[in-house]
Amino acid sequence: METPAPATERPDDAPATATSKSAQTRQRILDAAAEVLSRKGYAGTRLADVAAVAGVQAPAIYYYFSSRDDLVEEVMWVGAHLVRLHVEEVLAALPDATPMMDHLMVAVDAHLRFELQLSDYATASIRNAGHVPEQLRVRPAAEEALYSRLWRDLFVAAQQAGEVRADLDVNVFRLLLLGAMNWVVEWWNPRTRSLDELVATAQAMVRNGAAAR
Amino acid sequence: METPAPATERPDDAPATATSKSAQTRQRILDAAAEVLSRKGYAGTRLADVAAVAGVQAPAIYYYFSSRDDLVEEVMWVGAHLVRLHVEEVLAALPDATPMMDHLMVAVDAHLRFELQLSDYATASIRNAGHVPEQLRVRPAAEEALYSRLWRDLFVAAQQAGEVRADLDVNVFRLLLLGAMNWVVEWWNPRTRSLDELVATAQAMVRNGAAAR
DNA sequence: GGTGAAATCTAATAGGATTTAGAAACATGG
DNA sequence: CCATGTTTCTAAATCCTATTAGATTTCACC
């Protein structure tokens, strides 16, 4: 549920320790915003709700963020950022000789588990990407572009290695796959379905759907 | 100040001609709402915007709908309803001996083309399904359940016919597929990508991803 | 043309949410 | 324990938009 302090942006010019009381409160507010945003969406998220979850009064938020939209934008950016970091990390840990198709399998696993278990930020970011005002999308969109590129590179490499069918349109396939995984937040219920099975099925969809014969 | 036509469902018992001035205006407002909702989402849709697109003043909307939420709910319901009708229609036109896998291919084609080309209602319905307040989801959700069942039946039949791998979890696969197709509205741009190619790739994803060897 | 209902408009109301203002509590170093 | 800056609160202002009220136009039909 809670995401460990990921140095949300840059340490700014604040010389104080990253775990000072102030920084902690800011983090609590940000976490609360991610949680509420992931559950209720942009429209349904009121500052009073966020404040309640964070254990402060609504106006306290303005000590750390200049506006509601500023807070939302940061949650979205952090969400996109964390997913990318997580997947990159997991991929980097693979042995050098790992086949490209296995890279894809691992990426699918990492994306889904992170999105569903580890991060309200990821869920908030995914669910609200297309629902916030234009001006809030600029910074998060840059992160998403980097993430997109990561997947594109995976697919292109897999195709060049002959592990993915040469006649497959990997760009469209990739967008469909990311859509399938992103949409999971709209229907997945941990009570009724096992995460393992979901991951396995998504992996099968890629392996069988894209693999060369 | 009485509402001329049944504000909620179809003009079943409406005595007046279906194309009366009144019915036309109501339709114009509904169309406008679908258009704005599909573009700006639930949060970003203001009655003033809808009214502007429909060519009336905002209060005129209240002559036909009892509230903003009532209007939104109807758009959502119509969206879900139309997609289902369209796909059912296309499937019904198939020759009796058509293999089940071809049923699936046709359904994928119909869903995507309808969603992307024909209907702001479908787009509005898809994009906002998880973003409107609970109370607005009841009626649309019933439609979606019917649509879900349609797909479930397709997959189950295909699996029983031996055209889909026996070990595939068709429920999860179906939800992933519908997610992939629904999410398309978030990224598809008719200018930069051909719809034909999108459809072909989605079909390939199902055919190769699910087919028995 | 006159008449009444239907349809739409202008102008005002109302309620909820963000956002400011300014005071109180808190911490921290001298 | 005092002084000073930081953090948070209460109370109030402001803004935005749905909604209502009431007036006005449109239009079918006598």
Helix content estimate of chain A = 55-70%
Number of strands of chain A: 0
Q: Name the largest protein-protein interface in this structure.
A: A-B, 38 and 38 residues
Largest sheet of chain A: none
Structural class call of chain A reads mainly alpha
N-to-C series of helices and strands of chain A: HHHHHHHHH
Q: What is the averaged pLDDT score of chain A?
A: 89
Radius of gyration of chain A: 19 Å
> What are the low-pLDDT stretches of chain A, counting only 5+ consecutive residues below 50?
1-17
Q: What fraction of residues of chain A sit in β-strands?
A: under 5%
Oligomer: homodimer
**Global geometry of chain A:** elongated
How many helix segments of chain A? 9
Distance between the termini of chain A: 41 Å
Top keywords for this entry?
homodimer, 213 residues, mainly alpha, 9 helices, 69% helix, elongated, disordered N terminus, DNA-binding
